[in-house]
Design a protein that fits this description.
single chain; alpha/beta; 9-stranded mixed β-sheet; 4-stranded mixed β-sheet; 13 strands; about 40% helix; disordered N terminus
Length: about 300
């Protein structure tokens, strides 16, 4: 059983898996998953971090554990009865197509005494790629998070291959979003969950009670809306060198944003939000210039 320290930490809840990248030339494997990427990214940025995720007692699970240990991320693992999750990104035809194994489709996180203690002690709780279409899991998670308006950061990050009930996912996600400190959404979330534009999704979340919504729009950069009318936008950050892989851009953006909040508090005005967004876009740009989703800084 992992030892829970009393030092303030960020706890990330969600998925951990093996990413398999296939193209016409080769197949490569990396530890991944949105929550794992955010947790490791925070650790790279110097933030003490714990990951709560389902990890199997198998060879893939050993790879995931070794990778987290390499970056100093504490793991609290729910055993995977079907083994560890795998996600295959097939890029042979250009745009990636994703396929998930049975373990990923049946992922489940248990919230026992160790998990509750870690969540209760956390400076911030970040949830990414969580099965919000499982109401029992969602309710179990929320029962462990006190003061969500001050501590909870949500990135829905749905995956079509793991999404069982879209309307239920939306209902449970929006219920949490209305009680959170920060919600991050992307254009892919708007398309998959809502069949809408990112602007429409951002407006919907604000109308539903979300206080602060950070929206990422790929090549169009990022924006944050605080309250009903305060919108701050920044473009993507231009760096030398080609873009190699965009897979970790959103996770890098989230990790950098959470790091800024941990170190400087929640921005209190437009200028401070712009500083946070510029730094997040810089981190995402550096990450995209390497294969895989490991957070990078220039």
């Amino acid at each position: 059983m992992p030892e829970i320290t009393t030092a303030p930490r960020v706890v990330v809840v969600g998925d951990a898996l093996i990413d398999v990248l296939q193209d016409s030339e080769a197949s490569r494997e990396f530890p991944g998953g949105a929550a794992l990427n955010v947790a490791v990214g925070l650790a790279v940025l110097g933030v003490p971090t714990t990951l709560i995720a389902m990890v199997g007692d198998d060879a893939d699970g050993a790879v995931i554990r070794a990778f987290l240990n390499q970056y100093g991320v504490q793991l609290i693992a729910t055993p995977g009865p079907l083994g560890s999750s795998r996600a295959v990104s097939d890029r042979t035809d250009g745009e990636p197509r994703y396929f998930f194994n049975d373990a990923a489709k049946a992922r489940r996180i248990e919230f026992g005494a160790v998990e509750r203690a870690a969540l209760d002690a956390a400076r911030l709780v970040v949830v990414s790629c969580f099965p919000f279409d499982d109401t029992a899991q969602t309710e179990a998670f929320m029962a462990c998070v006190t003061d969500p308006e001050q501590r909870l950061v949500i990135d829905p990050n749905p995956r079509a291959g793991m999404l069982r009930d879209g309307p239920r996912f939306v209902r449970n996600f929006e219920a949490l979003a209305a009680r959170s400190l920060l919600v991050k959404v992307g254009d892919e979330d708007a398309d998959l969950l809502y069949d809408s534009t990112l602007d429409e999704l951002r407006a919907r979340l604000v109308a539903a009670g979300a206080g602060t919504v950070l929206a990422t729009a790929g090549r169009l950069g990022a924006s944050v809306v605080v309250g009903l009318n305060n919108l701050v936008s920044v473009p993507i950050y231009e760096l030398d060198g080609p873009i190699v892989d965009t897979m970790g851009a959103g996770d890098a953006t989230l990790a950098a944003s959470v790091c800024s909040i941990v170190r400087g508090g929640v921005p209190q005005d437009a200028a401070a939000w712009q500083v946070l967004l510029v730094d997040a876009m810089l981190t995402a740009a550096a990450t995209c210039r390497h294969e895989g989703a490991l957070l990078r800084r220039p």
